[in-house]
Input
Amino acid sequence: MKKVILFFVLAFGVSAQLYAQKKEIASAKPGVGYGKEIQANKAISIAKLEKELSTRSTFSGKIEGKVVEVCKKKGCFMTLQRDGEEPIMVRFKDYGYFMPADIIGKTVVVEGVAKKKETSVASLQHAAKDLGKSQSEINQITQPKKDINIVADGVLVVR
Output
C-alpha cells in the first residue's frame, strides 16, 4: 500500500513540475503586458529618469524605453537603451514573470522603482553570461559598477 501511495505522490510531483515548465511567455506585441497590469500614461523617458535620479536617490513610477537585450536563459531581466551609455538593467519584482526573446527592439513602459545602485563584479559577470557574452568578455568585467537599476512590477509593450 505504501508503494502505491508513494507512486501516486511521485507521479503527481513530476506532472506538476512538467506543467510548470511548459508555461509559455506571450509574444511581445503592442498591448501585451507582463506582471502587474499597467497603463502607458504618464511614463517618463530614460533621459528624464536620469535627471530625476541626479537630484534624488529613487524614482517610483513609469518609464518608457526601448529594449536592447533580454536574458537568453529564460527572460529573467532585460535592458533599456540609453544615449551614450550602457543600457539600464531592469529586473522583475520577486522574479515573478519573464520576458520573451522577441521583446528586443520593442518600446515598453515599465512601472516600478528605479535607484542608483552599485552592482558587484559577480552579479555583472552573471548577467553577462545570461546575455550570452563570450568568456573573454565576461573576464573583462573586473570592477563593480554604479548605475541605475529598475525593479519593475509590470511591463507593457507599447510598440
In short: Residues 18-22 have pLDDT under 50 and may be disordered. Residues 18 and 134 are 31 Å apart (CA to CA). The domain at 27-157 is CATH 2.40.50 (OB fold (Dihydrolipoamide Acetyltransferase, E2P)). The longest strand covers residues 58-70.
